[in-house]
Amino acid sequence: MDQCRCGELATLTDGKPGVIRKGYLTHDSGQLHYRCCGDESLPLLILLHQTPSSSAMYLRLMPLLAPHFFVLAVDTPGFGNSDPLPADVSIATFAEVIFKAVSRTFDRPVLVFGHHTGAAIAVQLAFDQPEFVRALALSGPTLLTEAQKEALPSAAQAVSLDEKGSHWQEMWQRLRAKDPEADLALTLRETLLAFTCGDYYEASYRAVAEQDVARQMATIQCPTLVFAGGRDLLRSAVVPSVRLLPQGREAALPEEAGTYVCDRQPDAVADLLRQFFLEIVEAG
Fold first, then answer.
1. How many helical (H) and strand (E) elements, i.e. helices and strands, does the chain have?
2. How many domains does the chain have?
C-alpha cells in the first residue's frame, strides 16, 4: 500500500462509509489528487469530473454510493489539486495517467463513471484498457457534431486579468450561464477552479474535440450506460452513443437536470449508477 494512502484510508473501515477522505496517488510525472469513501474491499468505482471542475463536484454523490462501492473520485491532471502534465494535453494522456496511478495502487478491474469531459476520459480508458474497465456509465457523452467540435474550445478561452478585477466578473458570468439556478456557492467553486486550472480549461476542451470518440465507442465491449439531463447540452448525443456502443443502453435523468446534475440531483444519478453497477457486479 502506498505510504500516501495509509492515513487517508485507515478510518474507512470504522462503520462510516460516507466519510470522505483525501490523498494522492503517484504516477510517472507527478501526483494525482483524489477523494474517496466506502470500504476498500468493495468493488472499485472511479468518478471522473467535467471541465473546469474537480472531484469536489462529487461530494454529494459519493456518500450515496459508498454503501455498495469503494468510491474513488480523482482530479484530472492539471485540475483541482492534481499536478499538470509535462507534455501536451490530450484525452489519451489524461486516461493513461489515471490508469497508471490507479492500477499501481489498486490491482483490480474497475467500474467507471464520467460526466462530460470525464465521460470522454472514461471512453478512452475503456478503449485503451479493456481488461481494466468492467463497465462504463457516461453522463453527457461527448459524441459531438462537427459544429460542436469547432465551437467547444472557444467556450473556454482564457480570460485576461486586469487591475479592476473584471476577469472575475467575466468568468463568473460564463460559469453562471451554465445553470443560472444553481446555488451561488456552486458557481463560486467552479469559478475558482476555472482560474486554478489556467490554460487547461481551454486545452481540455480542445482535447475533447480532437478525440475520435465515435471510433472508440464502436469497439468498446463492456456494458455501458448512457444518459443526460433534460437541460444538458449533450443530451442529443445519448441515442447516437447507445447505437454505436456494442453493449450500450440508455437511461433517463430528470428533465430539469443540466450540467451540474451530480451536485444538484445526486440522488437521481446515484439511483442509476447503483442499479447498473450492482447488476454488473452480481453478474460476475
1. 12, 8
2. 1
Where residue 80 sits, what CATH number does that domain have?
Answer: 3.40.50.1820
Q: Among residues 171, 178, 176, 162, which one has the least CA distance to residue 196?
A: 171
Q: Is residue 179 part of a domain?
A: no
Q: pLDDT tens digits for 145-164?
A: 999 999 998 889 989 999 99
Confirm whether 245 is domain-assigned: yes
Distance of alpha carbon 222 from the chain centroid: 18
Q: Count other Cβ atoms within 10 Å, centred on residue 206.
A: 18
Query: Nearest-CA neighbor of 207 among 120, 127, 115, 78?
Result: 120
Q: Grid coordinates in use for 208? A: 475533447
State the pTM of this model: 0.93
Interval 195-238: pLDDT, tens? 999 999 999 999 999 999 999 999 999 999 999 999 999 999 99
Q: Is residue 230 in a domain? A: yes
